[in-house]
């Protein structure tokens, strides 16, 4: 059985008096340890789905279960606690705090879930993993390249040892060289057993997934296999 399961998940927005049905009776199962990619055209509802899966937003109808718990019924407070304990996030907009060093940006999130010494040790391991030196950790965000900032965002997303890392267009701002580095890192992190759910509209990024779901018209239209995707340079 899945780690995250949706049952007839629906999300409707009211925009200027009209109802927009963005997700429609969507059934989905995400396996523990998988690298699940949600692909689809712009406006398909990918981010909306990611928000529902990660407890950032609640469905209009239907349910989301996480390890058998129906999180879609949680209060705002309970959802916030759920996110802190179980979810890591990496977004296209990285939003590091400019007044804090790289290390302190990571610590600020880590300390929500652990004591300073434990979190610092975890952070150092993750910084080693993504190839940011001790000198890099002391830098302030304004001194980082886009690729470095993305790596900091990845460390921050993992610092609380989340059950799932949710990545929404994590390479959207990066050139192809940095994109490849970040996607390789996501694959490496997944290879350690970390469950990853990534939203992208880019087919070459999608190729990094172990499972690629295609979202259109508010439902999962099917799965793409790697054979359908262009090979080689991502
Ligand atoms: P994608 O990530 O696939 O590009 P989104 O999930 O961001 O798509 O958006 C899908 C549709 O839902 C868009 O038409 C968008 O305008 C609408 N939408 C998303 N969030 C909101 C919101 N908070 N209020 C109203 N409409 C929204
Ligand atoms: P509070 O409950 O005190 O408002 P939040 O949970 O909103 O704290 O977290 C504070 C900041 O840390 C926010 O800017 C949020 O984006 C970030 N944050 C919280 N949890 C995570 C996480 N698991 N991964 C990445 N960033 C996170």
TrEMBL record:
An example Gene Ontology molecular-function term: ATP binding
Keyword presence, Hydrolase: no
Top-level taxon in the UniProt lineage: Bacteria
CDD domains per the UniProt record, alphabetical: ABC_MJ0796_LolCDE_FtsE
Signal peptide: none
Keyword entries, A-Z: ATP-binding, Nucleotide-binding, Transport
Residue span, ABC transporter domain: 4-234
Name recorded for this polypeptide: ABC transporter ATP-binding protein
């Amino acid at each position: 059985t899945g780690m995250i399961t949706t049952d007839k998940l629906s999300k409707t927005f009211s925009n200027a008096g009209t109802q927009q049905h963005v997700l429609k009776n969507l059934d989905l199962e995400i396996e523990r340890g998988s690298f699940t990619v949600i692909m689809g055209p712009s406006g398909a509802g990918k981010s909306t789905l990611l928000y529902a899966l990660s407890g950032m937003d609640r469905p209009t109808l239907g349910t989301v279960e996480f390890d058998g718990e129906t999180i879609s019924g949680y209060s705002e407070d309970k959802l916030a606690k759920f996110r802190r304990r179980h979810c890591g996030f990496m977004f296209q907009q990285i939003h590091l705090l400019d007044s804090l060093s790289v290390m302190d940006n990571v610590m600020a999130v880590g300390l929500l879930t652990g004591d300073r010494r434990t979190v610092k040790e975890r952070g150092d391991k993750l910084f080693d993993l993504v190839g940011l030196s001790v000198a890099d950790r002391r830098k302030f965000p304004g001194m980082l390249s886009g690729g470095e900032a993305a790596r900091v965002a990845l460390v921050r997303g993992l610092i609380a040892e989340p059950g799932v890392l949710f990545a929404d267009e994590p390479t959207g701002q990066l050139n192809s060289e940095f994109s490849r580095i970040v996607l390789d890192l996501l694959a490496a992190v997944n290879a350690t057993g970390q469950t990853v759910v990534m939203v992208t509209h880019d087919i070459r990024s999608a190729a990094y997934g172990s499972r690629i779901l295609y979202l259109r018209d508010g439902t999962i239209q099917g799965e793409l296999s790697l054979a359908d995707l262009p090979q080689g340079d991502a």
